[in-house]
Design goal:
Oligomer: single chain
Structural class: alpha+beta
Strand order of the largest sheet: 4-1-12-11-10
Order of helices and strands: HHHHHHHEEEHEEEEEEEEE
Number of strands: 12
Shape: rod-shaped
Radius of gyration: 39 Å
Number of helices: 8
Helix content: 40-55%
Strand content: 15-25%
Length: 332
């Protein structure tokens, strides 16, 4: 009687094990079919690997997977550029899709992605490697590497985002600057200016020459402007520089400026945001060359028919009793 009971128990256990094995196989085959339809679905890939781990033994590696792994190894070994390493990841990807429970393609794919600089993808490949080979001798080391790659990928992503934002701002600024310069160009096209200066008297320099004494803030607003008739009509805006505009003396019959009084650079969306500077000139032995620039104080009418400016201060009203040398441009 005891033998009959024991035999019955063994038969029951065998049936239970067979039922469990059949259930595990069905679960694996079902997950595998779904993954084959959506190979980029990470959750389905995790499900296939998990279902494979429940099988009594892992499925046999298909020959297509072995072939793709070998091709990936050849591509990796001969790679000389990031593009070459990415080509290797394609072959390793084919291997992991043909045998998603196999750990080798994930391991090799992580190496190739790392070499290509695709750190987030390298970390993701290690994640699947560890799922497929949880008891691998290098599991702890690979887990640590995954964490490091995730951190480096985050830092790289932040740097790339910052660079992209900076580039977008630079592009926007270039477009904005071009729009401002085009607006100014449309207003002053073919306009020539007379140049004048503000002074109350000419002062003897001591060597027989004289110079203008300039104007205070109150005198600037008075009747102290004098035109340089010798240079009338020869001051123009020059737009040969794509990033800035120059205002200066063109000279008789010249195609370019003989000298520059002011340089205007767009610094915002409107003409009022223009940053104006005076060139700092230096004699190099044969000619005057621009060695730098200094900020200028500039005021102009809304139609750009009149300019007033000085290179000696950026805020003349702060020292209203100081005489500064102001110049002006008036459209003909």
């Amino acid at each position: 009687m005891k033998r009959i009971v024991a035999l019955f128990i063994l038969l029951a256990l065998g049936c239970m094990q067979a039922t469990y094995a059949d259930k595990s196989t069905d679960e694996f085959q079902d997950a595998l079919r779904q993954l084959q339809q959506s190979p980029d679905d990470k959750a389905l890939r995790e499900a296939v690997i998990g279902a494979a781990q429940k099988l009594k033994s892992l499925p046999k590696i298909p020959e297509d997977a072995r072939r793709a792994l070998a091709r990936g190894a050849a591509a990796f070994e001969t790679a000389q550029s990031a593009a070459d390493y990415l080509a290797a990841t394609v072959e390793f990807g084919a291997a992991m899709n043909a045998a998603p429970w196999w750990s080798d393609p994930y391991f090799n794919r992580s190496l190739a992605f790392e070499k290509a600089g695709s750190l987030a993808q390298a970390a993701a490949a290690i994640h699947f490697y560890l799922l497929a080979a949880p008891n691998a001798p290098d599991a702890d080391a690979m887990q640590t590497k995954q964490y490091k790659l995730e951190y480096l990928a985050e830092q790289k992503s932040k740097a790339e985002a910052a660079a992209a934002a900076a580039q977008a701002r630079a592009n926007q600024q270039r477009q904005q600057s071009a729009a401002v310069l085009n607006e100014l160009k449309a207003m002053v096209a073919a306009v020539n200016y007379d140049r004048g200066d503000c002074h109350t008297q000419m002062v003897d320099r001591g060597d027989g020459a004289q110079f203008a004494d300039g104007c205070t803030w109150a005198e600037y607003s008075g009747r102290n402007w004098h035109s340089d008739r010798a240079l009338e009509g020869n001051f123009v805006f020059d737009f040969s520089d794509a990033a800035a505009v120059r205002l200066g003396f063109k000279g008789y019959g010249r195609n370019a400026l003989a000298f520059t009084d002011l340089v205007g650079t767009p610094n915002g969306p409107t003409l009022n945001d223009m940053q104006w500077e005076c060139p700092v000139m230096e004699w190099n032995g044969t000619k005057s060359v621009e060695k730098g620039r200094k900020p200028a104080w500039v005021r102009f009418s809304s139609d750009i028919r009149w300019f007033g400016w000085t290179c000696e201060t950026t805020d003349p009203s702060a020292n209203p009793t100081v005489k500064y040398h102001y110049a002006s441009y008036k459209a003909q």
